[in-house]
Amino acid sequence: MHVARLVPLLLPLLAPSVSTARQEAPATTAPQTPGVSAEALAELAGDLRELVERDLVVGAELLVVQNRHVVLHEAFGSSDLEEEAAWKKGTVCNIRSMTKPLTGAAAQILIDRGKLALDEPVAKYLPGFETDASRAITLRQVLSHRAGLPLTILTKMDEFEDLVAFGNAVGARGPEYPPDSRFWYSDAGTEVVGAIVEVVSGKKLNEFVHEELLDPLGMTESFYFLDDDDPRRTRIASLHFGGVGRWKRFSDPDDGAFYPFAWGSQSLYSTPRDYAKFLALWMDGGRAGDQRILSQAAVERMLTPASEMSMLGSDARFPTAMHGLEVFYGQMAVLHVPIAAAGKGPATVIGHSGSDGTIAWAWPERDLMILCFTQSRGGGAVLRLEESIDRLLISPEVYAGSEAVPDELQPYLGTYVADWANHMKEEFVVKHTNGKFSLDVPSQMVFELAAAAEPGRWNYATAPVIQVWFERDDAGEVDCLRIRQGPLTFEAPRKGTPHEQEIAQANRPDPAVVGKYLGKYHDPDEHVDVRVFIDGDYVAIDTGKNDLVLHLWKVPTADVWQVRENPMMSVTFHQKDGKIVSFRRTGPGGSELVLPRVD
Question: Among positive and negative, which fits the CA dihedral 506, 507, 511, 512?
Fold first, then answer.
């Protein structure tokens, strides 16, 4: 069972990207330029500062570039909580999936040179795809996440000796869905693209990308962190994982290189100013100054919508707070397309994001780029900036409506406490602002609520499969928010009501029920013992590494526990002769590890 599909409100940690060529960094800070007011920029910076102050992200850097001038560049919060290090401008980040556009651009360069063709079978280059299930998969399909391949096949970081072996293993594993039948976001498919680049070019992916993209663009702060002696290592931010009140340092550059070799889906490190140079390459039609790096046709291939973009591990549409736009995917590019264009383009906004909290948007017609980098994994807080950007810089007229709250909505406004899946006593706020009735999920974004056909019910405007309604107590006061997605309905009691206390007591783990799971288990990959225990109001796993504690949530429809901090990971306990003897940890793409009990 793919547990993540059962859980509401889970957003993928991906989204958009964009900048200039050898090509100086988007020039020095300029005075106010037409189209961007100093007041709006100051308010945008204030909104990001508020996210840091509310502990939705640990630290962040915001860059706004218009007409190739930096009009806003600010840093907030911390780059390392344990060291209490302030985030400085130019802090280097693991940009995760923002690597994908450069991997895709590397393949496009080879297409431009006649060494690859979009509709060639992947099996021509990777023999692992010479199977009945994988033989029909083409380069076009892996570039656009339409090959049906899983999110990942990895069970551990050093599972493969090199990227070509990794790509061949993806083919041997085969697709989860018939090729070209749907959009299904896949890191594994992007490893395949990177492996093809290596086979065709005869160079390692990182070497090819450096020679053909990073060096010509002057991206000196962008690199594959594979060498512990790289002098830029000291400027890399630590990665934090968790959420409000529970951020933990997950990885530290002092631990050494995170990746064993360059991957297609991730492994590139960068800064906002440096990554903006790549985005400008798109906006300039493949040219960097007087040098052509990508053909105009290659840029058009990347930025032409290929599919409606769905959320990670789901068929639900990827949401956006940008007025009048829908999210599509091209060939390694996220595209915001006018609703009236029905996905045919051209895109109004282009870019990509990364799952550790990095994101970038570009508006080619406005010559505008906005990049926000954090290293706060476990929420979609940076996506919340979409509403601020749209309201302050792009479509302010849309938000100029009356603030008067309709009488019929007044009883519902307030704070409700969610305690399921990846939400741990998270305070959801039902509000009415800028003329919109909405649900503010702090770890994700603000979801506008649209009236459903059934009276007294609302759907997420961006994901109508999710329905919302309210219930009242015996005195007629609203005391509960309910959210339904698929077969599951979740209850969030109103904060400060007796109902909140009742639900909290009911959800508290009973040692008589969960006691059979508690104890020590051995992790054969990390060679450490882990402990399952009761941590306050939750069943939890002490991983025995980096003080990392993972909290579990029992999926109502299956004998499965989901890891709250990582919804794509689940745990299933196994028993023999009435006793728990092990648990199986299942990760993205179905990767599995069995941890035997040792006490």
Answer: positive
Q: Are 268 and 238 in contact (CB under 8 A)?
A: no
Q: Give the span between the Cα atoms of 349 and 337, in whole angstroms.
A: 7
> Rounded distance, CA 34 to CA 67, Å?
9
Collect contacts of 423-427 with beta carbons under 8 A, ≥24 apart.
423/9, 423/564, 424/243, 424/246, 424/538, 424/551, 424/564, 425/537, 426/243, 426/244, 427/495
Domains, the chain, ordered by start: 14-114+134-396 (3.40.710.10), 407-507 (2.40.128), 514-596 (2.40.128.50)
The answer for residues whose C-beta is within 8 angstroms of residue 348's C-beta and 6 or more apart is 322, 325, 336, 337, 338, 363, 365
Question: pLDDT tier at 1 (50, 70, 90 boundaries)?
Answer: very low
* H or E element in which residue 271 lies: none
DSSP state, 533?
Answer: E
pLDDT in tens, 168-213: 999 999 999 999 999 999 999 999 999 999 999 999 999 999 999 9
Sign for the pseudo-dihedral over CA of 195, 200, 204, 208: negative
Q: How far is CA 437 from CA 52, 86, 325, 467, 478, in A?
A: 25, 37, 19, 14, 16
Give pLDDT tens digits for 35-60: 689 999 999 999 999 999 999 999 99
Beta-sheet pairing, 376-377 with 239-241: parallel
- 8-state DSSP, 310: B
Q: Could you tell me the strand order of the sheet in which 579-586 lies? A: 519-523, 528-535, 538-542, 549-554, 561-563, 570-576, 579-586, 592-596
3-state SS, 472-514, equals: ECCCCCEEEEEEEECCEEEEEEECCCHHHHHHHHHHCCCHHHH
Judged by average pLDDT, the poorest of 47-61, 94-108, 122-136, 585-599 is 585-599
Written as one letter, the residue type at 346 is P
Q: What is the rounded CA–CA span in Å between residue 417 and residue 497?
A: 10
The 10 Å Cβ neighbour count of residue 50 is 13
- The SS3 of residue 282 is helix
DSSP 209-227: HIIIIITTTT-TT-EE---
Which residues have CB under 8 Å from 228's CB, separation 6+? 256, 257
What the block records as the tokens of 526 is 């990390």
Instruction: Give every CB contact of residue 534 below 8 A, 6+ residues apart in sequence.
Output: 509, 511, 514, 518, 540
The predicted-structure confidence for 287-306, as pLDDT tens digits, reads as follows 999 999 999 999 999 999 99
| pLDDT single digits (tens) 64-90 | 999 999 999 999 999 999 999 999 999
Residue 26's pLDDT is what?
A: 59
Q: Rounded to whole angstroms, how far apart are CA atoms 528 and 466?
A: 40
Contact 457, 469 (CB under 8 A): yes
Closest residue by Cα to residue 573 from 588, 542, 595: 595
Q: For 534-545, how does the pLDDT look when each residue is reduced to its tens digit (9 = 90+)? A: 999 999 999 988
Tell me the two tokens of residue 313: 């591990």
> What is the rounded CA–CA span in Å between residue 190 and residue 152?
10
